Amino acid sequence: MGKNVKKLRSAQWFDMPGKDGFIHRTGMKNRGVPAEDFFGKPVIGICNTWSEITHCNSHFRDLAQYVKNGIHQNGGFPIEFPGMSLAEGTMRPTSMLFRNLASMEVEEFIRANPFDGIVLLCGCDKTTPSLLMAAASVGLPTIVISGGPQLSGNFKGERMGSGTHIWKFTEDLRAGKMTKKEFFEAEGCMTRSFGSCNTMGTASSMACMVESLGMSLPQNATIPAVDARRKELAIRSGRRIVEMVWEDMTIDKIITPKSVANAIKINAAIGGSTNFIIHLMAIARRIGIPLNLEDFEVLSAQVPLLVNLMPSGQYLMEDFYYAGGLPVVIKELANMLENEALTVNGKTLGENNRSAECYNRAVIHTMEKPVQRQASIKVMRGNLCQDGAIIKISAATPALLKHRGRAVVFEGIEDYKARIDDPDLDITENDIMVLKYVGPKGYPGMPEVGNMQLPKKLLKKGVRDMIRISDGRMSGTAFGTIFLHVSPESFIGGALALVENGDYIEVDVEKRKLHLAVSDTVLKKRKQKWTPPQHRYLRGYPKLYINFVEQAHLGADFDFLVGHSGSFVDKESH
Asked: Which pTM value belongs to this model?
């Protein structure tokens, strides 16, 4: 392994002659750091998304120290810096609004500073894609450490899945099957340790995406947050990033068309979140990999569901790890994957996982006996979604995958909340709920409200699923026959904006059809009369977001962020 100090990016700062080098070096020495500690060694930036308000990431202060230990052990110099922490459970109007902001912040901070390699500490849903988007646009050697899932919940002898049971208990409360006291008590039983959701929600899907792409060491996705083995993984990741710098193993050598294809197939096999699509699309477009909605369906079309986890199954992330974790799934899929794709440890995906063992076939099934034969995310087309919509069929009700129903329309989230529990609401279980103006520009930020709660009067009758359509997203922990990411969105005049109460909508998932049974002539007349809604977001970042965010089928990134600028900075600061 050649160690040419002059080739280190940090040497462009610390080996400068005259006042520039003086300023850069003295800025390090005022921390009491001798020059030999940072000069001539790989300088590793650790992007830490720790926050007291982000429970998924609340252990990252501790985890970062283990990363530092590994970097020091292998002759590197760690510098920890903060990344915007996006808390799924607390941020309004939605954490997705700030994914692009976090990616901008981290991208520019990495580029502006003397880093040779980057460690990304990711946990909650949006921190993983935002940091990967940032790193992809800079192009340095990069390794990811996920925060890990929280421990399994338990309430009155029932195993609880974070997120998934929120939807279940909320329905039970509204249907009168659960008391307010029980509902309140369940909160403390569900989230009993730090770490991300213990179901195959978006955070876990993102962690699996990272490992599938080759951007982390094996088993990164599933080790529980509180498990000592996550600290061990942090040390080994710290050691490895130093080697990656000397090997010039940049992020574009890991995230390639082959690794992206692998991630898509593996996401289908684990029953991953629909949010996976919008995030991987944005990451791929940052690094310059062509990708469209149809690729997600074509690549995963023959992939069965192998992992029996909530919300598509019955087990939790802790069980997944004890059963052997993601390496077992990768081994099962070996004949369908690009096994020669490179990973951050210098080995291929196939080499890393060929000896994986399964310890519980109730959790991780075989290709011969899968949980479901057909479980991939399906891409819908039709006059209601000319640029596409998606549905996660592993979480849907099979009987509803072909249906013709009457539209019950909600003109925005406020209208929905005001009327959904009105006993006089004209709705039956055979109708189709339609929610407008919750897309990227419309909300703004494309919130996880696509899994609309059903009317109370239907819940009391025992109804637990209906077809729901919107231009929003849904939580990866949610379930139901839900069509999402309708594009173009209603806010910019997509056909969804023109749906009226009583219109009939035809759904046929086998034929990929999502059709509004209204003539083109009528739709044209409606469009002429349609008035775009007005936003109250007139300044600041939300206004920037509304002006420049792309549609869902393109990844909802800012149009001016697509692509990458590299790591070179051609001007000095003094």
From this structure: 0.95
